[in-house]
């Protein structure tokens, strides 16, 4: 599964890099926001940063790997707990092209809840111990289930308790993009 994940990742990233100049068109369609077209240069530049972060964090390969039984077993050994503080780290190290910040410095997602967002794993973050480690999440923690009182937690501790409460971008925005 690991090799397959790497192959799929390299292939997809290669396609995304090759089509980078056209990415504003796709992003405008995905977000339903023509700003990505109007700001063609900065959008392309931000998309390049997103792709670089995707590669660094092995986003695609880890997603493919998560379907493997071994990974599932390893992940099941850890209990994730905490509450999101909207720092934005897990949004590709704050480089996601859809990320922005509100006036209080809280992360916002430009496509939150739409058809494309629902195909991503963002809403369930952090799913694994690695998710927390890779993005240096300051608010969630992973504990070995064996060390928890009562062992395996109740079914109430499902993904819904950890979904990032990201809010959709509103009319009043703060610039999200980093140089
Ligand atoms: S889940 Fe963690 S890394 Fe992601 S925005 Fe919340 S606090 Fe930051
Ligand atoms: S939650 Fe939104 S802003 Fe964050 S990584 Fe996912 S798509 Fe990007």
List keywords for this structure.
alpha+beta; binds iron/sulfur cluster; 179 residues; 38% helix; three-stranded mixed β-sheet
Number of helical segments with 4 or more residues: 7
Major beta sheet, strand line-up: 2-3-5
Global Rg: 17 Å
Instruction: Characterize the largest beta sheet: strand count, sense, and whether it forms a barrel.
Output: 3 strands, mixed
Low-confidence residue ranges: 150-161
Q: Tell me the total number of β-strands.
A: 5
Q: What is the N-to-C succession of helices and strands?
A: HHHHHHEEEHEE
Q: Give the class from helix and strand content and strand pairing.
A: alpha+beta
Instruction: Name the ligand types.
Output: iron/sulfur cluster
Give helix % range.
25-40%
**CA-CA gap between termini:** 35 Å
Which range does the strand content fall in?
5-15%
Q: Given the C-alpha coordinates, what overall shape results?
A: globular
Mean pLDDT: 83
Domains counted in the coordinates: how many? 1
Summed up:
Helix content is 38%, strand content 10%.
Question: What does this molecule look like?
Answer:
The protein is α+β, with helices and mostly antiparallel strands and 179 residues long. It has one domain (2-168). It has helices spanning 2-18, 23-31, 35-38, 40-56, 59-65, 69-76, 129-134, and strands at 78-82, 99-101, 107-109, 140-144, 167-168. The protein has a three-stranded mixed β-sheet, with no helix packed on it. β2 (99-101) and β3 form a beta hairpin. α1 runs antiparallel to α4 (40-56) and α1 (2-18) packs antiparallel against α5 (59-65). It is globular, with a radius of gyration of 17 Å. Residues 150-161 have low confidence and may be disordered. One iron/sulfur cluster (SF4) binds at residues 84-90, 107, 125-126, 135, 137-140, 164. One iron/sulfur cluster binds next to loops.
